[in-house]
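Dock protoporphyrin IX containing FE; give full complex structure.
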Amino acid sequence: MLGTIQWMTRQQWLLRALGPVFGDFHPLLPRHRDDPHATWRRLRESNPVYRSKIFGAWICTRYDDVLHVLRDKNFTTDRSEVPAMRLFQRYARRDPTFAALIERNLLMIDGAEHRRLRSLVSKAFTPRRVEELRPQLESIVDELFDRVAETDEIEIVRDLAHPLPVIAICELLGIPSEDRDLFGSWSKQLSQLLDPLQGRGGVAPLRRAAHGIFDYFRPLLADRREHPGDDLLSAMLAAEENGERLTEYDLLSLSSLLLVAGHETTSNLIGSAVISLLRHPAERKRLQDDMGLLGTAIDEFLRFESPIQLTDRCAIEDCEIGGKTILKGQMVVAVLQAANRDPEQFPDPDHFDIGRTENQQLAFGQGNHFCLGSQLAKLETEIAIGALLRRFPDFSGATDPPAWRRSMIIRGPEAVPLRLI
Ligand code: HEM
């Protein structure tokens, strides 16, 4: 069934014919992919809490409403009562490994169980552990640039933004370097989880990757239990709270989630950051003249082209947002990218300003599910963009990528070809 829906999302004639059914929110059209900001602006100005009948969801585009949905306890990530999820559960009972990957991850559970899991992971995934990765990441980025320095050309996504986050997560978990390619290919397959409607091949590639990754981790976990190292996997095994530890399924699911949540997102942030610099030469020069602005520049990259455009929640009770009545059990979509360009929150929101100080951007979400890897993502971007600007100050390239990712959730360029001198 998923395969059929995926096929339908590739039929432009069908999508155009269905235009009236999609109404003001038609995120599957190429027009939206090329410039999602136009859709978000239109909705925010004309109908900021919009009922999309075809998606069966309310689409929130104003900063205050998005923040409310992410923070309010009346909105949960537990989607087990949503019809699409019930359909999936029936299917997943036949494959417990695949079901564990989907249902046992932090982004799908809520309440006490989420607090328990998150606090155990947070004990292991500390800011100190992330900061300790800095020298390794710096030398990895140098190595990646060394490989292309001779040719005077680079394709940023393929040569830097795509490999770097996989290497970073493998380093963090203590995965041997010879297995990185394996992780890269699982991650590519699992990334379809971020937007299954626009993937390819139905459920099969997802199941294959789930089994591949779980089969890889099982013996590795047993080994780390016997011989703990100085890595996140060993730290997660050791983490304990009130006598409780993470179960094997928790550990397998969490390790896979780190890969899924941390790869595509960071890769797209780096790719979009380079596009933003190419489109705004004066801001690029300002950054090159004062690299001390890199910290605020990264928040501006995140605000300007948020790598995760939207997330969703399910209403626990009837409630009201922006004068609209949301019924118990209905889905609410929080459009992070629209919130990040809301003029009520950000003065002159379409102006790219690397020195913007009042920048409470929502690209990493908010509330109980705030991104666990935000610090790692920022560190990788700081090192990658910093090295590009220092090593190749005269790089040049087109201000539009050949294509943007085919996804309504993920935002990032497919490729960013650059001349380095
Ligand atoms: C630019 C890069 C990244 C962006 C834009 C991003 C964005 C997000 C967002 C928006 C959420 C919240 C989703 C929701 O509320 O429904 C989230 C959660 C999460 N992220 Fe990230 N992320 C990034 C990088 C990373 C990295 C590098 C890791 C780990 C290696 C990571 C791990 C996670 C995890 C585990 C969660 C779930 C937290 C929870 O539910 O308690 N992310 N991320």
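Observed: The pocket of protoporphyrin IX containing FE is lined by residues 106-107, 118, 169, 257-258, 261-262, 265-266, 269, 307-308, 311, 363-365, 369, 371-373, 376-377 (CB under 6 Å).
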